[in-house]
Amino acid sequence: MLNSCIPWSSEDAGFYRRQGYWQDKELSLILEKQVRENPQNIAIIDNGSEKSYACLEAASSQLAGYLFAQGLRAGDRAIVQLPNCFEFYVVFFALQKLAVLPVLALMNHNQVELSHYAQSLDPKLLIADATHSLFQTSEFSQKLGNTAPNLQHVLLRGSNEWARNLTEKLYASACLDHYHCVPFRKHNAEHVAFFQLSGGSTGTPKLIPRTHNDYFYSVRQSVEVCQWSEKTRYLCALPAAHNFPLSSPGALGVFYAGGTVICAPDPSPSSCFTLIEKYGVNWTSLVPPAVQLWLNSKEREHVDLSSLDVIQVGGAKLSATVAARLERELNVTLQQVFGMAEGLVNYTRLDDDQWTRHNTQGRPMCDADEIRIVDEHNQVVAKGEVGLLTTKGPYTFRGYLNDTLHNVLSFTEDGFYRTGDLVRQTKSGHLIVEGRDKDQINKGGEKVAAEELENHFHAHPLVYDCAVVGMPDELLGERICAFIVKCTNSDQSFNRVILNRFIRARGLADFKHPDRIEFIDALPKTKVGKVDKKALREYITNLLVTLPIA
Ligand code: AMP
Ligand code: DBH
Question: Which residue in 80, 297, 318, 501 has a CA-CA distance of 20 to 30 Å to 405?
Answer without folding.
Answer: 80
